[in-house]
Amino acid sequence: MEEFEELRPLLFSIAYRILGSVSEAEDAVQETWLRYRTSGTEPESAKAFLSAVVTRVSINVLRSARFRREEYVGQWFPEPLLTDPYEDPERAAELADSVSMAALLLLERLSPLERAVFVLRDVFGFGFPEIASAVGRSEAACRQLAVRARRHMEAGRPRFEADRRERDELADRFFDAFREGDLDGLRELLAADVQLTSDGGGKAPQLQRPILGADHVARLLAAVAAPLARIGVTVEPHELNAQPGALFRDRDGRILNAFVLDVAEGRIQAIRMVINPDKLGHLGPVADAWTLSRAFTQARRAAP
């Protein structure tokens, strides 16, 4: 039990990157524990055994999840992650990059096997013998899967701001400008081709289409700030998926949505809003988005 608990952060981090879902990753880790507990033999390496099991469980879950995601209402985003429980100073850059929303969305383009091999090899640095055992393929096949996965990821990989301090300062300025409804201040921080997108899954009010361009995005954000404040919604900056972001809360502290910012070249390149309540429950009590939406509309109409 003690050995399993020591490895739990690693197992969750593997599963989350394969699945893009906190709840599904937690279920995969629990299933791994059950298999470990009922295993009749003591593995030579608990880390290798458990990593292989959680990978196989996650691949199976992903195969069924992909069909559900094809029928998903609107844009699908991963579940926001407050903190990654696994730390490895030697792979800090790989771990942070691979957990970003943009990287997880790129991983969605890969087959389940490519995704698993990429996560094990490029993110966590597993050797090909261990990877081959985990995914049930030969080492040669795993090398080919890794090459294909790496090619797909490199082709679409965004370039984020290298200086974390500057990135976080820009995010602070953005949320300050948002709270103040400062149109010019917002526009100044946005890339010319910035995109604002939302994931409500049909279970919360969401944008019908992405909002494109600095002027359109800035105008929308500046227009909603005051009505949100009037109905008691507050903005709590918080790192999400190793990126600057924020949690929006109602007057009772319940979570309305999560904002995640992509920052590069001194500007905000993308803003992703997760509003689907099913994807927010692991962060705390969730607000009633529909009720708040009606209150927001009334507040906006009542504005002088």
TrEMBL record:
Keyword Ribosomal protein assigned: no
Ranges where the RNA polymerase sigma factor 70 region 4 type domain occurs: 102-153
InterPro entries: ECF_Sigma-70_Domain, NTF2-like_dom_sf, RNA_pol_sigma-70_dom, RNA_pol_sigma-70_ECF, RNA_pol_sigma70_r2, RNA_pol_sigma70_r4_t2, RNA_pol_sigma_r2, RNA_pol_sigma_r3/r4-like
UniProt entry tagged with the keyword Transcription: yes
Organism annotation: Dactylosporangium sucinum
GO cellular component assignments: DNA-directed RNA polymerase complex
The family this protein is said to belong to: Belongs to the sigma-70 factor family. ECF subfamily.
GO biological process: DNA-templated transcription initiation
Assembly description: Interacts transiently with the RNA polymerase catalytic core formed by RpoA, RpoB, RpoC and RpoZ (2 alpha, 1 beta, 1 beta' and 1 omega subunit) to form the RNA polymerase holoenzyme that can initiate transcription.
Superkingdom of source: Bacteria
Domain RNA polymerase sigma-70 region residue range list: 4-66
Pfam families given in the database record: Sigma70_r2, Sigma70_r4_2
Protein name (record): DNA-directed RNA polymerase sigma-70 factor
Keyword field: DNA-directed RNA polymerase, Sigma factor, Transcription, Transcription regulation
GO molecular function, one term: sigma factor activity
Source taxonomy: Bacteria, Bacillati, Actinomycetota, Actinomycetes, Micromonosporales
